[in-house]
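Reposting from the mailing list since nobody answered there.

I have sequence plus structure tokens for a pair of proteins and want to know whether others read the tokens the same way I do. The first protein:
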Amino acid sequence: MSLKNSSINVTHFIIGGFDTLSRPIAVGVVILITYLLAVFANMANIMFIISDKRLHKPMYLLICNLAVVDIVYTSSCNPTMIAVLLAGVNTISYVECLIQMCVFTLGTSMESFVLAFMALDRFIAIIYPFQYHSYLTNTRVLVLTFILWFIAWSFFIFFFTFVFICLSYCGILLFVKLSSNNEKKKMGSTLVSHLICVIVHYCPAFVRIIFTRFGVVLTLEESQGLLIGAVLGPCLVNPFVYCLRTKEIKQKLFNIFKKFHTSD
């Protein structure tokens, strides 16, 4: 008996993992609201920085780039999850799945890259404050940003960027030790925003790694919850952190609200 080679043409995938949820509609609504809030907040940050020439500086260009990354990252899979939970669309085409996988990997890599770049920015600002504007010009920041977007395609460098961030903070802490109390407060204030973003980005991933290392078996719902937190958490937290802790952006927001209040 001769066997003929046969091939299967895959055109669609069935999306699983949400079948056991007791309240899929409620979860879908929460994800939808969080997603829209994250996209709106990040777009607002981008518009504030683009429209105000006073914010055309290296640090704000990095914040703007982080906002773009957050929108790409959170849009890579959340619309699909929302469609599954709210509309019951549990299939995805092969091409759409491939595109989403590439965009998700790009977003994950770029989030790590941008946080590492921002750690370098803070390192230079604290260690070499007088040379900061000569070392990090707008042109250099833009060129490096484009290079990072290019090399991030399907290129996952999670641990390298985390190690780089840790080394940057080690250098900063050594420098801070030698500084006066007044300078320590100023430096601490500039680092808090970035540190919050780093923790929110890396925490879910390290929780999964630690649980796996110690043999803790997560349920499907717990795994999905960590994944959703890893995608939505940073994208929602980042714009609010930089809006609330960055003096110039906070002032711009205040002026906008004041203008609306006066016109009413």
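The second protein, same order (residues first, tokens after):
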Amino acid sequence: MKCLATRRPGPSMTSMAREREERRLQQRTNPKGTISVGIDATDLFDRYEEEYEDVSSGGFPQIEINKMHISQSIEAPLTATDTAILSGSLSTQNGNGGGSINFALRRVTSAKGWGELEFGAGDLQGPLFGVKLFRNLTPRCFVTTNCALQFSSRGIRPGLTTVLARNLDKNTVGYLQWRWGIQSAMNTSIVRDTKTSHFTVALQLGIPHSFALISYQHKFQDDDQTRVKGSLKAGFFGTVVEYGAERKISRHSVLGAAVSIGIPQGVSLKVKLNRASQTYFFPIHLTDQLLPSAVFYATVGPLVVYFAMHRLVIKPYLRAQKERELEKQRESTATDILQKKQEAEAAVRLMQESVRRIVEAEESRMGLIIVNAWYGKFVNDKSKKSEKAKVIDVTVPLQCLVKDSKLILTEASKAGLPGFYDPCVGEEKSLKVLYQFRGVLHQVMALDGEALRIPKQSHRIDTDG
């Protein structure tokens, strides 16, 4: 008699279908937004001398917002090849502000290219008309051209930007850019992006800005997707050194901070939060001079604040959020889990006779005997006392899978095996097996989605001494 191998249906897909629909809608409209708030905190380090007593500050440093910028864009697919793009922005600096609105219509002309018409208007720069073209020249080379006419009280200001790019290898792209009109320049850059690093080197010759740039970013292979970066930019208007880091703090949020040290720009701290497709940017200008104290506080301050917030706010919030999601998932799948449990218990009862014969055959040849096997969530010594192990006994169904003194499990969730079910939905699970082979005890623990092959010499329990 063969072991029962009934495949049971998966959990309820209602919530997953809703999430997929929301994700599909977001991908179709592709909303993007940016909020930038510039903060002038130079009074923290560059205080006026005491002779300026007519300026009443109350003894506290004056920190003020000196500029703001808000922009938003959304895409609306019209047909399979046409897309309308609507965007707008508002900005203010030192009491003077303005805004603009743009409308673009993009058409995919072929598999190799697309074109875009853009119309815009604003209270500061006047009407705008632009044309953008993209074309793949070869499988490894493409070109982008952007032509624009800006109408203002001083006349028509034309502009042209052309970018030629080529894939130099699997991870490296080279760019050549020519810009004519407003701030004419020629720029060449090489960008190398791999799984563990991102490297950029660029050189620009232009009016009025000419500079050389080198930038490196290291990507750590951890769950938080931590990245550290540094860059050096030198040109006619000074030199800027920048270093910083960014880290994923939740499923859709990435927090980053960078310190910018330049001559004659001074010292600035830049804090950025990416939340899904929204970006919040806070450049904080600390001092116009190169003060060691400003560099120290700009470097250490964000680290102290982050670790304090991570321990006191972020981790408790994520833990509570995960518990709510798990509880909601358990409630929605409770009936299904109960049904699967009953099916698994029925399958185990049907396996008993087959398992008895398998054990007798394995004992006769001193083969593979599953002494004990558990599947689910295990609690180690470091876990909180309030946590409880959620495991089920899978000794019988696992012994039923033994063939010729071997047991092979593929890279898939063990919950789908005959006689198994998920005892802790949404939580990390493992399979722990105590088995005997050639009269010697062995033990192994494997993650839920990890492949497992036994027996192995490395699983042997050392009984010496």
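Reply #1 (J.P.):
I read it the same way you do. The chain has three domains: 63-182, 191-290, 336-459.
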